[in-house]
Amino acid sequence: MRCLKKKMSQVFSLTQRYKRTLQAMAAGVFLIYMTLVLYQNVYGYSGSGGDGTNGGQDLQYGSTDSAAATVQNVIAKRDYSVNSVNGHVIKSVSAKVAAPTRFDKAYYDYQNGQLSVTGTPKPPTTELDDVLISVKTTKGYHDTRLEMIIKTWYQLAKEQTWFFTDTDDQHYQKLTNGHMVNTNCSQGHFRKALCCKMGKEFEFFLDSAKRWWCHFDDDNYVNVPRLVRLLDEYSPTQDWYLGKPSISSPLEIFLDNTKTSSGANKKVTFWFATGGAGFCISRALALKMLPIASSGKFVAIGDKIRFPDDVTMGFIIEHILNVPLTVVDAFHSHLEPMEFIRPETFHDQVSFSYARMKNEWNVVKVDGFDLKTDPKRIYSLHCYLYPFFSICPKTTKRR
Ligand code: UDP
Ligand code: MN
């Protein structure tokens, strides 16, 4: 009997001990959980481990050896993956397919009333109308480049897109419902003229009430719904400079009028987004640029560094304002081979381009119109993406 009692008390105390251990563990788990909840509330959600602002993450450009080749690259809130620019491996924002925006739905509903919208992780907060798209063009390209834009992607962003040119053109003014801006900048592909137009685009954005400014060249095809989805990943109230470099290491320039202690010209190093691929700037960042770059000052900075408009933009943002370029691989200029963009990914790309290189076209490889009708492949690309457009052959299958 005594033995049984002893056994019983042993079992009892054992149960008590387990109970206490379990209680302690539960309290520990609860404490960790509460800490996490509190942390998330204070700092917000950041997939990159950054803080959701521009203080994100240091990324190394592979196969470079100097300290200057390290760039502070900010990663989008949700995910990132390894990609490459000119063969150099970088970590950057991936061309992630997001759920369709309200704009996509409106467009498809308008076209045929059938395509349904799939589930979305969060309701989109950025709409097409939050964006100002500026396209740089020139008198000589109205017929050869602008016409194609107006027949294709412009139709998806008629109210939001403006063309910055160097002449009055009644024909295109009518076609665009007054969206041709004569910048009074000189014609010609030289720095001053190009910087002059870029400065006008910037000031036009500042005068608007838009949350985002996206610049493109007139040889870009802009995938409008994808552009809106991209911007929806970022906040216009934070500093964002989104685009893609066309060089594999940061640009190094020497400033004439700034000397080091030894009397040499000061070297500065920065990244810039290639203008020919397009880039986007948030309103918050544009407001920081205002005192430096508005009222004609953009041209003055271009003159000072003696580099083209897109380089000047990078100099102002990365060097002067210390806001890093966020690399978005979904922008494409004709400095990259277009044929390597796979058709299955067309919907994920923000921009495309084309160029004639000697006797060959650097163009997107896509089925569609014959090469004679559409040597630049832009109409074919547009019909691949949006087959229900009236310019597209009736037989084109939906993708
Ligand atoms: N451009 C311009 N004035 C010119 C030539 C070109 O404003 O005299 C614009 C053109 O419309 C385009 C951009 O500059 O948006 C780049 O021109 P292009 O594609 O001809 O040359 P790239 O710099 O791409 O080689
Ligand atoms: Mn070009």
Topology:
Elements: H1 2-43, E1 57-60, E2 70-73, E3 80-85, E4 88-93, H2 102-111, E5 131-136, H3 142-151, E6 161-165, H4 170-175, E7 180-182, H5 191-207, E8 212-217, E9 220-222, H6 224-231, E10 241-243, E11 251-259, E12 265-270, E13 279-282, H7 283-293, H8 297-305, H9 309-320, E14 326-327, E15 351-353, E16 355-357, E17 360-362, H10 378-385
Parallel strand pairs: 5-6, 5-8, 6-7, 10-14
Antiparallel strand pairs: 1-2, 3-4, 8-13, 9-15, 10-13, 11-12, 16-17
Helix pairs in contact: 5-7, 5-8, 8-9
Bound molecules: uridine-5'-diphosphate (UDP) and manganese (II) ion (MN).
Uridine-5'-diphosphate binds next to helix 5.
Please tell me about this protein's structure.
This protein has 399 residues and is of the alpha/beta class. It folds into 2 domains: 1-43; 50-385, Spore Coat Polysaccharide Biosynthesis Protein SpsA, Chain A (Alpha-Beta Complex). It has 10 helices and 17 strands. It has helices spanning 2-43, 102-111, 142-151, 170-175, 191-207, 224-231, 283-293, 297-305, 309-320, 378-385, and strands spanning 57-60, 70-73, 80-85, 88-93, 131-136, 161-165, 180-182, 212-217, 220-222, 241-243, 251-259, 265-270, 279-282, 326-327, 351-353, 355-357, 360-362. It has a 7-stranded mixed sheet. Helix 5 (191-207) packs across helix 7 (283-293). The protein is globular. It starts with a helix and ends in a 14-residue tail after the last helix. Manganese (II) ion binds at residues 217, 219, 276, 334, 355. Uridine-5'-diphosphate is lined by residues 136-138, 141, 187-189, 193-194, 197, 217-219, 276.
